Please model this.
Amino acid sequence: MKHKEKKKYIVTGEDMEKIRRIVFCGKEKFHKDQAKLPFEEKIKLLVELQKIASGIRPSENRVVWKV
Amino acid sequence: MPFIVNYNVAMVNVIKAINRMVEKGLIDDYAIGGGIAAMFYIEPFLTYDVDIFILIEQGKKGRIILLSPVYNYLNGRGYPWKGEHIIIEGIPVQFIPADELETEAVRNARKILFKGIATKIVKPEYLIAILLKAGRKKDLHKIEKILEEAKVDRKKLKEILAKYDLKEEIKRQGLL
Model:
């Protein structure tokens, strides 16, 4: 069986800029897609965020919404 | 079997409680503002309370607005106070008597259904103006996000900003 050579990706100059543009466009698209989520879904995510935040730094004033 | 939590029940009950206040004539109208309204238009972010802009016309003399009936009603229903919030169904809610800009925002608010329950959310153009007026760093950041991620009627926004003398401020902040 023929040994499959691993591909190596080397980017320089203009290509690097192209890749960076693609990455940043991807990030922007992700945020815009998140913004389009249904409101109900966003509230679910908010409670998850509150739980994470309270796990990191609990505070009496920053309560996780009771559900 | 996984434990399924319906995160939206508490929010539905908050909206129902506020709608009941309108039905009872304690407030004339309302709209959700602040972070939760922003979240309607942009990606989810961490926030802890719900800001409600309220219009109260009854018994209003001059600039005096009586909020006691609202607070007494909520207290009577067993919703406790915590700092400047009233805790409805476990969610801290702040009732803000609307100023001139906010009154216009409430009257023109977007009607939505949240899990089948009718409510109103301040439109993004008004939300931007309200946040700009507040002017804290986090408010300005929300404006940036709304302009990036939401559909904003720029013509309407400019009209609102001009009407409430905020045109220069938005330019000064480099937001528009």
